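Exercise 7. Given the encoded structure of a 266-residue chain, write a plausible sequence.
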């Protein structure tokens, strides 16, 4: 989907029913953000389901967390931690109407009491700093294309690990050796653990092979879109980052529940 700007409006065009779900999620998330004081979500101004148009309040002066990491901005780690806290609050409070409950693929479904409504594409390109106000802003409440754009409900580990995988995959090819993915992901998970109950993170290890499979799939999808000459460098740097991602996850598999338990003060 493309976002275009018309004055103070940010407009998305797409499939009507999908935009309707995105609009409903965005409106609820806006309220959660305001009530928690942790993050901001742009207001929905108008939905025209028939024409497939969704208008949001346009925020000027946004920098994605991804761009801040590339720029080695001093505020980065603090913001990654805040993003983790914000996600935990979303998982705790977001409730969509039953007719908008679409499940993730079965491997990403928990025993029913542990499933939550998800963001669906929680990635460092969809979480921003609003420079004028200093607030964290969460955009793009439509599920990622790789999981089919419709799911709204499933394991909270999907959003948590999707974010982690995007941090590692986002390493610019020329900066893989200085890309501090581990530190950023640590900060993000620490934030999540601070705001979430330990119970919700005690099955971390079950999902590691699943996120690795998704990560590989995503890397190949993106590699195919590269110019032929750039593809080898991209694949090489992504293989290097994938090994680091795998190693990082193994560390959490060994220590995860303990780290989360300690950090959440339980
Ligand atoms: N409300 C908004 N105000 C300002 N810019 C926005 C807004 N919504 C989206 N954008 C810009 O458009 C980009 C794409 O929007 P996003 O909702 O992430 O759609 P997509 O599904 O295309 O990823 C964002 O990264 C951001 O730069
Ligand atoms: Mg996006």
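Solution.
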């Amino acid at each position: 989907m493309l976002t275009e700007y018309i004055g103070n409006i940010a407009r998305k065009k797409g499939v009507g029913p999908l935009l309707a779900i995105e609009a409903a999620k965005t409106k609820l998330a806006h309220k959660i953000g305001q009530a928690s004081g942790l993050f901001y979500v742009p207001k929905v101004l108008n939905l025209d389901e028939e024409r497939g148009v969704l208008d949001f309040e346009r925020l000027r002066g946004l920098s994605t967390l991804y761009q801040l990491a590339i720029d080695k901005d001093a505020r980065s780690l603090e913001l990654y931690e805040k993003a983790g806290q914000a996600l935990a609050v979303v998982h705790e409070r977001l409730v969509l109407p039953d007719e908008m409950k679409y499940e993730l693929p079965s491997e990403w479904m928990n025993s029913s009491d542990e499933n939550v409504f998800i963001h669906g594409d929680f990635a460092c390109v969809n979480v921003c700093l609003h420079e004028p106000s200093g607030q964290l802003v969460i955009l793009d409440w439509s599920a990622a294309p790789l999981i089919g754009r419709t799911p709204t409900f499933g394991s909270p580990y999907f959003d948590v690990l999707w974010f982690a995988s995007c941090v590692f995959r986002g390493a610019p090819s020329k900066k893989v050796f200085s890309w501090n993915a581990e530190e950023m992901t640590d900060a993000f998970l620490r934030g999540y653990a601070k705001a979430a109950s330990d119970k919700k993170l005690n099955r971390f290890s079950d999902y590691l092979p699943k996120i690795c499979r998704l990560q590989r799939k995503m890397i190949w999808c993106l590699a195919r879109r590269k110019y032929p000459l750039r593809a080898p460098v991209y694949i090489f740097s992504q293989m290097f980052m994938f090994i680091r991602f795998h190693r990082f996850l193994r560390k959490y598999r060994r220590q995860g529940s303990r780290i989360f338990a300690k950090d959440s003060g339980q």
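Remark. The radius of gyration is 18 Å. Students should compare their own answers with the one above.
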